[in-house]
Amino acid sequence: MKPVKKHVRRSAVGMALAMLLLAASLVVGGCREKAANATEPPAAKVEGDKVSFAQDAPQLGNISAAPAELRQSSEMGVYGRLVWNEDVTGRVFSPIMGRVTKINVDIGDTVAAGDVLALLASPDFGQSQADVKKAASDLALADRTLTRLRDLLAHGAAAQKDVDAAQSDYEKAAAEHQRAVAQARNLAQGAGGNAVDGAYPLRSPVAGMVVEKNLTPGQQVRPDMQLANMPQFTNPQFVVTDPTRLWLLLDATELQAVTLKAGQAVRLVAKAYPNRTFVGRIEMVGQSLDPATRTVKVRAAVENPDRLLKAEMYVTAEVADGVATGVAVPAKAVFMRGNQYYLFVEDAPGRFERRAVKLGLENGGAIAVEDGVAPGQRVVVEGALLLQAIIEKGENP
To answer: C-alpha angle with apex 158: 154 to 161, nearest 5 degrees?
Structure first.
């Protein structure tokens, strides 16, 4: 009987151990299930452009919002470059081949329109002068012949056909004379002359100051020099301009360009004159973006009465962005999808709505929103891309 009791005792111990293991496995499984359920956040609810969370959703810890503020008028800084005002600038190229025999001006000299800047010894111009002389002589001969034949016709000593032929010769000589004179005057830039000396006058087309001279005595010049791809050839022989009137060329971003209009005042700040400001006015805003720089070309006229500013100076232009409109939000609140800008507005705690917005100028980390958000509305400044990802997942489950 003793072996039987021993066997029963062992069976009871085994059953108790199995029960303990089963209970332990159930406890561990329950803990794992609770842990899994604890790490899985509640699902967000997506309805079109709206996203809502439960009040205890952990995702809300990654989302923060701030009220949109009424936008204040401010000034934006745009880098620019000063150049000569092309409306009062003349770039002089020789339209004829010749050798420089005399230079009458130097850089800094003031000239009037039509003043001779230099003289060239030009066989081509001499030929043009000779053509004028010959045409004038032929015209005088044709005039005398026509007058004589008309007188003879009146006395019955000449035929009508001879008078008609003389009339035709006279008209041809007159046309040739007009052509020769016009060509000579065009070459000489409006100045005529009776001498056949081949001295071509290189004249200033505008009044102003000589600011550039690229000519030396004895230099040979040709009209096709400006077509060469070399600076010493492509540069004009003279540049004459009014240095008191300059142009300011600006490269504005597309967001800056929408706030710029012709007539707006511009304040210039140059490194050379840190304690002075200069005033200009916008004349033109480009209608397209440069494909390389993605900027819009803007031109302003600048008055420079003291001649302190120089062409090719780099300056900073400060332009008022106009009347305060819309609201200002942090730039990081805005994101782009396709060709449209968006942001999220917090309608209520845990509820957010995506809105398409129209943007204005960005300044100091804040960007103007001209349409889509009202002052005081809470705008998501952290977590906008998380909300966008949730919407996209809801659209493409």
So the answer is: 105
Return the beta strands (E) in 48-103 as ranges.
50-52, 64-67, 69-70, 75-84, 90-92, 98-103
220-221 and 238-241 as β-strands: parallel, antiparallel, unpaired?
unpaired
Residue 213 reports pLDDT greater than 50? yes
What's the pLDDT tens digit per position in 62-93?
999 998 887 655 567 788 999 999 999 999 98
Contact 277, 268 (CB under 8 A): yes
Pairwise CA distance, residues 214 & 233, whole Å: 9
Domains of the chain from N-terminus onward: 46-72+325-395 (2.40.420.20), 76-86+242-320 (2.40.30.170), 90-122+200-241 (2.40.50.100), 124-197 (1.10.287.470)
pTM for this predicted structure? 0.58
Instruction: Identify the residue whose tokens are 């003043």.
Output: 115
The tokens for 51 are 């996203």
Q: What is the pLDDT of residues 31-68, one digit of tens each?
A: 455 444 445 666 788 888 999 998 888 888 899 999 88
Residues 6+ apart with CB under 8 A from 382: 62, 63, 64, 332
